[in-house]
Amino acid sequence: METRIAVISIIVENSESAEKINSILHEYGEYIIGRMGIPYRRRGVSIISIAMEAPQNTVAALSGKIGKIEGVSVKTAYSGAVFND
User: Fold this and answer.
1) How many CA atoms lie within 13 A of 55 on its CB side?
2) 7 and 47 Cβ atoms separated by less than 8 Å
3) pLDDT the model gives residue 62
4) CATH architecture of the domain formed by 2-79
5) Residue 31 in contact with residue 54, Cβ under 8 Å?
6) What are the angstrom distances between the C-alpha of 79 and each of 24, 42, 55?
């Protein structure tokens, strides 16, 4: 299986979306290397970074599911290296 390392950046402008985001992230937990969440209270948003290693279609599926949530913006960056396990 070919995998890539990716970072998904999430900006949450609607705090009611947090439960949905956490549920989706839990589904993909086996691929997540680490997660960092920063509540930016001054602006009323949260910033989440997800580092993961997974097949590209899995990363895209996770990013797509989160991106469909209202009040949430998502961007993904991939490493150039491909790993075969």
Assistant:
1) 6
2) no
3) 98
4) 2-Layer Sandwich (3.30)
5) yes
6) 22, 32, 12
| Contact indicator for 46, 4 with CB cutoff of 8 Å | no
Distance between CA atoms of residues 75 and 9, nearest Å: 5
The amino acid occupying position 16 is E
Q: Is residue 85 predicted with pLDDT exceeding 90?
A: no
Give residue-wise pLDDT tens across range 28-74: 999 999 999 999 999 999 999 999 999 999 999 999 999 999 999 99
- Domain layout of the chain by residue ranges: 2-79
What distances in angstroms separate CA 49 from CA 2, 60, 80, one per listed residue? 23, 15, 19
Tell me the C-alpha distance between 14 and 54, whole Å.
Answer: 28
DSSP 3-state assignment of 72? strand
